Amino acid sequence: LHAIARPKDLAGLRIAVTAGPTQEPLDPVRYLTNHSTGKMGYALARAAAMRGADVTLIHGETALQPVKFTTDVPVTTAQQMYEAVTSRFEATDVLIMAAAVADYRPAAVANDKIKKKDGDMSIPLERTPDILGTIGPKKTHQFLCGFSMETRDLVENSSAKLTKKNLDMVVANNLKVAGAGFGVDTNVVTLITPDGTRELPLMSKADVADAILDEILKRRSQ
Ligand code: CTP
Ligand code: CA
């Protein structure tokens, strides 16, 4: 009923959403990752599809069911997510990067399982491609929405990402607020745009998704 009653106010819009963590392999049995479950990104993909958008959901490994009426693009690593986003970028009107992309990966991936030895173990790391940081400066018609997770100086740090990555909006999360962050069904976010900041109250991730899409729609039609 919810879906039927929804106005199709995003019809004709091509929206790419990234969600979930990336996994960066070390050897055939181990990888580096983070606590992202994908819930916020999936909620965005679901809300956008219900509102009539043409949605592509590019996601890392999650325990969530695919979202109906979206194009499902599973990836594993930051490099694969980079390729999935950039290859579709020209045919994207709105990119929402809700994924928690690993910033580092093991510099070398061992072909065989690494055996334990005596003494210290350290793993050389290298940077992964910064997806938004690479495409932000090259955008043409696209609206770019990033996410930012911080444990301190939320607005200052997130506003810096808006400018640095040439984004149109940043959805900022304070991990230290109750009801926000990993795994839960609610979120507390601040929407940051070049015009200022707007803090939203504690809401379900479904309602946060609709509020984000409302703001994007409003800003695109200005
Ligand atoms: N992001 C990205 N590619 C990366 C890392 C992050 O596109 N390799 C995107 C995220 O999906 C998010 C935004 O950039 O939408 C901000 O991510 P965040 O981790 O908060 O910022 P970083 O620039 O990685 O800075 P830091 O982790 O040092 O705070
Ligand atoms: Ca990061």
TrEMBL record:
Pathway: Cofactor biosynthesis; coenzyme A biosynthesis; CoA from (R)-pantothenate: step 2/5; Cofactor biosynthesis; coenzyme A biosynthesis; CoA from (R)-pantothenate: step 3/5
Enzyme Commission numbers on file: 4.1.1.36, 6.3.2.5
Signal peptide (residue range): none
Annotated stretches, region: Phosphopantothenate--cysteine ligase: 15-222
Names of required cofactors: FMN; Mg(2+)
UniProt cofactor note: Binds 1 FMN per subunit.
Name the UniProt record assigns to this protein: Coenzyme A biosynthesis bifunctional protein CoaBC
Upper lineage: Bacteria, Bacillati, Bacillota, Clostridia, Eubacteriales
Included range, full protein: 177 to 398 of 398
